[in-house]
Specification:
Layout lengths: L2 H4 L1 H8 L3 H18 L12 H17 L2 E2 L6 E6 L4 E10 L10 E7 L4 E3 L2 E3 L2 H20 L7 E7 L7 H8 L8 E7 L5 H4 L2 E4 L7 H5 L11 E4 L12 H5 L4 E5 L18 H20 L19 E16 L9 E14 L2 E14 L6 E18 L2 E19 L2 E2 L9 E13 L2 E10 L14 E13 L1
Parallel strand pairs: 4-7, 4-8, 8-11, 9-10
Antiparallel strand pairs: 1-3, 2-3, 3-7, 5-6, 9-11, 12-13, 12-20, 13-14, 14-15, 15-16, 16-17, 16-18, 18-19, 19-20
Helix pairs in contact: 3-5, 3-10, 4-5, 5-10
């Protein structure tokens, strides 16, 4: 993008942005954070009157700035969650673009205003999480509104509710968006931006979702003096999500903007007096420049790339697995108990997904061992398990439980250094049951697998009329493609 000429007005504006102007901005940011993170709002828990009080405050700020309601006559978008027993409200405003064509395209900037409420007698005021983001959103709205005449694309400003309890506000907005979602050119989430002095950086996660995203975000003409801006290609944290999530899953370019979790994250100590308001001034300036650059340039493009954590679950999955654990021979009768020994295996895993359920065929090599006084018995197996999987995945991560059967063919075996007799004493083939569970931390799955044979290893019973059967319990790691 050629920013130097077409953004001249922004940099002239920035050049005359006086120390007095910075002081006023800082005072406004302080006012917003101290108001939203006050004890009187009792932690702004979604579904409570205190979250509604926070929403009302944001509405008043948008009205005072001159932001127009996104909806016909109201800023508030009411929705229900927790099986429709809880009610919350997003606050949604819009700054209309001025280009006859591009005004029908949108940049969404959002920040959630709910927090954790009161727990154990302690108020979780959430000054950094996320009164800081809402404060920046309000002042960003002010700056963009002041220069609306220069904007081509339209800008939607959203204070999301019910983020902490499951991203309900952002999901509801996008699922009820009245235009094709392809009209959203970019979504930026401003979440926890109040600890710049400690973190030393303002990070944008998702630069690779935008064509030339790193170059645009780090352009020296956009970065205020004194602000260290960094980028990451994609959001990667397996368990932490923000309001970018539903947008990214629709293929919309997203940037998650944050100074990190250096603050007392989800603790009562996250209070307004710890916030770095000087850093927030610089952050507001950079966001204003960045949003303006996207709103102005007709040649802005999405890259078509998306983070792995935001990709839809594929129909087919495959990978490599390795396992190590203990195995022993279980006697079918009598008082004898087999002694355990270390066994291991490796193989190929595939999976056909049908949402909550999946079918998982595998092909593995397994070395199974059991201790005996006459020497350890070792058998080498080609094993083919087939399992039914029940899984819960969110943000590409989660848990699964599986149950199935397996077939194994023993192609070699020894007791001590001597080869075992598959013609007269031991069976080559084995059938049994397998079960276990796993934890997905993409691209890995870590889990436990148990197998127990239903057929005998020995062809003839011993003096106690007992056969022996294999039993294994393994710790398993799978790398998924």
């Amino acid at each position: 993008m050629r920013l130097k000429n077409s953004l001249t007005f922004w940099f002239v504006f920035s050049a005359v942005f006086s120390a007095n102007g910075q002081t006023i901005l800082k005072e406004r940011l302080e006012q917003h954070v101290y108001t939203l993170a006050a004890d009187s709002l009792q932690g702004r828990k979604a579904g409570t009157k205190y979250a509604q009080m926070a929403a009302n405050y944001i509405v008043k700020q948008f009205e005072a700035i001159g932001i127009k309601p996104y909806f016909d006559s109201t800023f508030l978008q009411t929705f229900q969650w927790h099986e429709n027993t809880m009610t919350s409200q997003n606050v949604v405003g819009i700054i209309q673009g001025n280009d006859s064509v591009l005004k029908n395209d949108f940049i969404v900037v959002g920040a959630h205003f709910d927090h954790l409420g009161v727990k154990g007698g302690h108020i979780y005021n959430g000054a950094d999480d996320n009164a800081s983001g809402v404060a920046v959103l309000i002042e960003l709205a002010r700056k963009l509104k002041e220069n609306q005449s220069n904007l081509k694309r339209s800008i939607i400003l959203i204070a999301f509710d019910a983020e902490e309890v499951g991203l309900h506000g952002s999901n509801y907005f996008l699922n009820h968006f009245e235009h094709p979602t392809e009209r959203i050119e970019l979504m930026i989430s401003v979440d926890m931006v109040g600890w710049y002095a400690t973190s030393g950086e303002l990070n944008y996660m998702g630069s690779h979702t935008i064509k030339n995203g790193k170059k645009i975000i780090l352009d020296p003409l956009l970065v205020p003096e004194g602000l260290n801006v960094t980028v990451k290609k994609f959001e990667r944290h397996p368990f932490r999500g923000t309001d970018t999530d539903p947008f990214a899953k629709k293929g919309i370019p997203t940037l998650a903007t944050t100074t990190g979790v250096k603050s007392p994250y989800h603790k009562p100590e996250d209070e307004a007096h710890l916030i770095d308001f000087d850093g927030m001034v610089l952050i507001t300036e950079h966001l204003k420049n960045l949003v303006a650059s996207v709103a102005i340039h007709a040649d802005y493009e999405a890259s078509g790339r998306i983070a792995k954590k935001h990709k839809k679950q594929p129909l087919f999955m495959y990978g490599f697995s390795g396992s190590v654990g203990l195995s022993h021979h279980q006697y079918t009768a009598g008082a004898l108990k087999g002694k355990k020994s270390i066994s291991f295996g490796a193989g190929l895993v595939s999976q056909v997904n049908f949402g909550t359920f999946a079918i998982r065929p595998e092909v593995r090599y397994d070395r199974i061992r059991a201790k005996y006084p006459a020497g350890e018995i070792t058998s080498d197996h080609l094993t083919v398990p087939l399992s039914l999987v029940v899984q819960y995945l969110q943000y590409g991560n989660g848990v699964d439980f599986f149950l199935g059967g397996y077939y194994a063919y023993r192609f070699d075996g020894k007791q001590g250094k001597e080869s075992i007799d598959f013609e007269n004493v031991f069976n080559r083939e084995e059938n049994g049951l397998t079960w276990g569970f796993g934890l997905y931390v993409r691209p890995f799955k870590i889990g436990f697998t148990s197998r127990f044979a239903l057929t005998n290893f020995t062809k003839f019973a011993n003096a106690d009329h007992a056969h022996i059967r294999n039993r294994t319990n393994h710790f398993t790691v799978t790398f998924l493609f």
